Amino acid sequence: MSFTIQECTDEDMPRAFELLSEAFGHEHPFVEYVFPAHDRPQGRRDGAERFLQWRKGDPLATNIKAVHNETGEMVGHAKWIIPKGVVPPEFELGGDYWETEDQKEYAAWIYSQYLVPRRQAFKDYGGNVVALDLMTIDPKYQRQGAGRALLKWGTDIADELGVDAIVEATDYGKGLYASEGFQVQYKWTTPTPGKWAGREAQSFWWMIRPKGGKGDES
Ligand SMILES: CC(C)(COP(=O)(O)OP(=O)(O)OC[C@H]1O[C@@H](n2cnc3c(N)ncnc32)[C@H](O)[C@@H]1OP(=O)(O)O)[C@@H](O)C(=O)NCCC(=O)NCCS
């Protein structure tokens, strides 16, 4: 089976959000808190609207999709940030999508803490780096090469620009990224201080692909 990689249009954002909801399920605290009720109709509508707003508000980001060659279906989505020497502005989580003020506050907290390594890297590199913000493949089409194709789209750009690439990897993505030259730097877990002690945190593997992709296979 093969897939074609294309740039998304605005009309692809509802499907892109559906893919996030289906690919992550309910296993990731970040997704649960930032996108409340993401598997329900209102949560899906809100998520699609937010993906569209984020897309329109971020000229440094590119949404791409993997399209199934036989059915024409969008089976995967990735968002790459390609700053080309600009340190990206830091967006805060906004909107009115949460049932309580506490849920909204914790969502904003986990969002900002999740982005700590990336924001530091953008500064350290002076924006001369490429970041994989998000990658999700329809569970029905995983392990068929769509993820690797979406990944290579961005690492090819990193190679053309002669820059490193960075990603916050889940356990599911880690092996794929390692096989394309990313190296684990450390495991990051969002802190849960004070009144949120004991609340679910989000962990990920902070990975860097040195320019040219001379990584290891670990
Ligand atoms: C992680 C994810 C994006 C990977 O996408 P994918 O399309 O399944 O990835 P690929 O098929 O390109 O490669 C994944 C693995 O399948 C293997 N594979 C590829 N084609 C295959 C095939 N035809 N048969 C069997 N295995 C295959 C690859 O070698 C790779 O193996 P690895 O785990 O040893 O690295 C996808 O599983 C996903 O959406 N997961 C949930 C969300 C998530 O965690 N996203 C990552 C955020 S950082």
UniProtKB/TrEMBL annotation:
Gene3D superfamilies with a match to the protein in the record: 3.40.630.30
Pfam families the UniProt entry points to: Acetyltransf_1
Any one GO molecular function term: acyltransferase activity, transferring groups other than amino-acyl groups
InterPro entries (alphabetical): Acyl_CoA_acyltransferase, GNAT_dom, Trichothecene_AcTrans
Domain N-acetyltransferase: 3-212
This protein's name: N-acetyltransferase domain-containing protein
